[in-house]
Design a protein that fits this description.
The chain is α/β, with parallel strands linked by helices. Strands 1-2-4-5-6-7-8-9 form an eight-stranded mixed beta barrel, surrounded by four helices.
């Protein structure tokens, strides 16, 4: 009889623990897919969107608090996001501020990458400052690229697209890129960092834009969106 009661107690305890684990998992899933920083702390919030994110209902995006959108535009020396033009038109039709993002490739010449970006993104004073996504490392380039060359070529790229746009570029730096090259404190540009849920500190100086959630689910899109906030 004692063993039977003990077994029942253990089963109940196991059931309770399993229920708590399921509740915790469900809360964690909901938080990851719906959390965004408090608007009181960060009044200006937006999204980053590219063709891989699928279609966006831009009016719905504005309704849920999106005030700006950065659109993936070009990558490396030749790649171009096929959704850029349509996203640009639709986001502007929804009265959102819009900017363009170039994904930088340290294996490719700066001049060719700048030409690619300038072909895709027209000179337009109404655009937000351009952003360059720095995530790819030069370690696997077919031809060896030194750390000094990475910085030098990047500066050439920045100077050329800034001449084109008339605005200083925002450096969207990944944790891995910064750990490898330590450019955030050496290049005087505003920073865009990424850190899910917790504010990022890996650049060694304050950020201007923060990708706070890369899996934000909402009525604005069938697929998760990359949620971005502006520092106060």
């Amino acid at each position: 009889m004692a063993r039977t009661k003990s077994s029942r107690w253990r089963l109940r305890l196991f059931g309770a623990m399993l229920l708590l684990a399921l509740i915790g998992a469900a809360w964690g899933w909901w938080t990851v897919h719906h959390w965004r920083p408090a608007r009181g702390a960060f009044p200006v919030q937006g999204i980053e969107v590219g063709s891989d994110d699928g279609a966006v209902d831009w009016k719905a995006a504005k309704a849920i608090g999106v005030s700006f959108a950065y659109l993936d535009a070009s990558a490396s020396a030749f790649a171009r996001d096929p959704a850029f033009t349509q996203n640009l038109e639709d986001a502007r039709a929804a009265k959102l501020q819009v900017g363009a993002v170039h994904t930088y490739d340290p294996c490719q010449p700066a001049e060719k990458q700048a030409a690619n970006f300038m072909t895709v993104v027209a000179r337009d004073k109404a655009m937000l400052p351009p952003a360059v996504w720095l995530d790819m490392l030069a370690d696997d380039c077919p031809v060896k690229v030194t750390d000094a060359a990475v910085e030098s070529e990047l500066m050439t790229f920045l100077n050329q697209i800034e001449t084109h746009t008339g605005k200083p570029t925002i450096l969207k730096i990944s944790r891995a890129f910064e750990k490898r090259y330590h450019l955030a404190t050496r290049i005087d540009r505003n920073l865009w960092l990424e850190s899910i849920y917790m504010q990022p500190e890996y650049a060694g100086r304050p950020w201007t834009l923060w990708t706070a959630n890369t899996m934000m689910q909402s009525e604005a899109a069938a697929q998760p969106l990359r949620w971005v906030v502006v520092s106060r």
